[in-house]
Amino acid sequence: MGRVIRYGSVLGIVGVLLYLLGPGLRASREAARRTHCNKHLKILGLALHNYSDFYGSLPPAYVADENGKRMHSWRVLILPYLDRADLYAAYRFDEPWDGPNNSKLADQMPYLFRCPSSVQRDGMTNYQCVTGPGTAFPGAHSVALSEITDGVSHTLLVTEVDRRSVHWMQPKDIPLDKAYQFLQDRAHTGGVHMLLCDGSVKFLNENVNAMTYRHLLTIRDGHLPGEF
């Protein structure tokens, strides 16, 4: 009986310790996930810059067919610069992203397209650009880095979302008029990571001023965002 009591006491102590240490352990794990998310975006930034070096511009947000239908995403276009030339070669540009052949690639999303803190199902990406007039990804046509006259260190290239994630091959991103609203859709506490056009990554506070955020999204409105 004494041995059982001692065993129960040990379990009780362990339980108390786990309870006390729990918040710290969770915070430590989230800090590690934030670090990895930051690294993912930096690698995506390097891939986008390598694409720009080769083609003279950033990729378009999407490739459209002759009728304007969105067919392929910028995420597919940068695969060769993410060491996934094999996946790029397997992808067919003569059919939509969800066509018969391309659908077979749906579960082969590069891990870099997923935030480690996300709870979304496999194949869904957290990293999206903001699309619309005046942004670095206006739509089916490309923007050169030299066109970003507000400064590449003051202009957003890619940001993260969580619940509004999309399939990694889907040519769909954040529309400019919904961007500030999407800022609240985050996997991390307190804000989101964003990749700037100079390749740097910053953590944007969730309470950032709407006008400041708007200036971050545009490439040549003549206004710098200030502190963010």
Explain the layout of strands and helices.
Elements: H1 2-55, E1 62-64, E2 70-73, H2 74-77, H3 85-90, E3 124-125, E4 127-128, E5 130-131, E6 156-160, E7 166-167, E8 174-175, H4 179-182, E9 191-196, E10 201-205, H5 210-217
The multimeric state of the shown protein is: single chain
Percent of residues in helices comes to: 25-40%
* Total of DSSP H or I helical runs spanning 4+ residues: 5
How many domains, as an integer? 1
- Tell the overall outline: globular
N→C terminal distance: 63 Å
Percent strand: 5-15%
Along the chain, the helix and strand elements come as HEEHHEEEEEEHEEH
How many β strands by DSSP? Answer: 10
Please supply descriptive tags for the structure shown above:
228 residues; alpha+beta; two-stranded antiparallel sheet; 10 strands
Describe what you observe in this structure.
By secondary structure, the protein is of the alpha+beta class. It has one domain. It has helices at 2-55, 74-77, 85-90, 179-182, 210-217; strands spanning 62-64, 70-73, 124-125, 127-128, 130-131, 156-160, 166-167, 174-175, 191-196, 201-205. It has a four-stranded antiparallel beta sheet, with helices on one face. Strands 1-2 form a two-stranded antiparallel ribbon. Strands 3-7 form a two-stranded antiparallel ribbon. 33% of the residues are buried.
Question: In brief, what are we looking at here?
Answer:
The chain is 33% helix and 14% strand. It has one domain.
